[in-house]
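Would you be willing to look carefully at the protein I have copied below?

:::
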Amino acid sequence: WVNNCVGENNQKYFIPFTLYIALLSLHGLLISAYHFVVCVGSEWRQCSSVSPPTTVVLLLFLIFESLLFSIFTAVMFFTQISAIWNDETGIEHLEMDHRNWERKSRWRSVQAVFGRFSLSWLNPFTMPPLSASHQPYSYAV
């Protein structure tokens, strides 16, 4: 799904995206399940404008789809958080590659992606911190 498109410069955007999609899918799952339970306990004709069997099939499909998508995006979210936390990429983890650099502390790894702790961590529209290789040069006069 990601196809190696998540990198150092866009990981800050991808993590809230997966979190919000997982939460919205979970919300859809809960609303669909609630609607299904309410319709089972009452007259089916009052729950939907379509026939009761069609309503059941559509609700079950929506519940199944919401469940699968919330699990999928939650796994993507926790995989990215784990990669940041352990300061290694997925390829390094699979290859058991030995690092030739010093591992950052876990808090520094998180700050490298999100910046200093603030509520902007949850805002997908804030810019990620610039890495050392992308910092603009300042020339002293």
Q: What stands out?
A: Residues 134-141 have pLDDT under 50 and may be disordered. Helices lie at 11-41, 52-86, 90-95, 106-114. Residues 52-86 form the longest helix (35 residues). The chain is about 55% helix and 0% strand.
